[in-house]
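WARN retry 2 of 3 for item q-0093 after timeout on previous attempt; input resubmitted unchanged.
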Amino acid sequence: MFRRLALAVGSLLGVVVLGALGYMLLEGWSLFDSLYMTVITIATVGFSEVHDLSDHGRALTMVLILAGVGALGFSFGTFIDFMVEGHLRGLLEGRRMNRAVENLEGHHIVAGLGRVGTAVARKLAEEDVPFVVIDQCEECLAEATERDWLRIEGDATDEGVLLSAGIGKARSLITTLDTDADNLFVALTARTINPDLFIVARSSHESSEAKLLRAGADRVMTPNLIGGRRMAAMVLQPVVSDYLDIVTHGDDVEFTLQQVDIDSRSQYANTSIKESQVRARTGAYILAVMTADGTVNTNPASDTVMRVGDKLVVLGTTEQLQKLTGVL
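OK item q-0093 returned
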């Protein structure tokens, strides 16, 4: 549409320029007189001729009327289409979106809105956390537009696009572009801009995982590999798989895994799991403890002491987890 609008404006200006040049060459008029005659001829306002016209000048005038009216009608129709189809509204919406993104801090960025990226964005929206999506495909951005997600239309491999999404102030980046090469480039660029950014990258091939990690990704996910393992588990351990489906997606009860940080304000700081009575008081389960130095205790004993800086992996219902975070 923008190309069509540019063509319309260009054709109208072209008729004006050629008409003015024609009067200057054929009639010997000044630039101003030639331009004035051209404009009133195209506009068909019916004013008198600036000077008497020769036969060649009259012929040029007739050609200008035909060409000018056509160019003017085409330009007017294109402008109306531009307004009706909402392109001007889209420009204003884009400015509003850019201002909203500029005000974000500690947000998440999703690069690529394919099947994986859209699923990620939906989850972030469910959790009601601030995020921005990036894609250069209008069709891919359709759902983002419908749901009024903050969005940047552009190529995520472009450093300028990442900067416009607030990469320097973002908390995390999830890159789910179609190719591993693009995801690698995005991860490398983002890491250079924001060394503290947490980056999760999608990989199509297991062999690309190490390269993405070296490029700056903190985590790499290969959907095909994960899906294959999940399907194999359904065959080999169907009861376990069914149980996980029930507790995470069941209609009657829904359990959620959540990270809980222990800070200096927590009443559980420097107490053991047994002493804290987390299970008895909230109903939630502490499945793992990651200490400040990165060591993960995947099966913590009851005498495990929770210290400031530790991160807990907790399983429970939404109500239980809210109760737990409320007393932390």
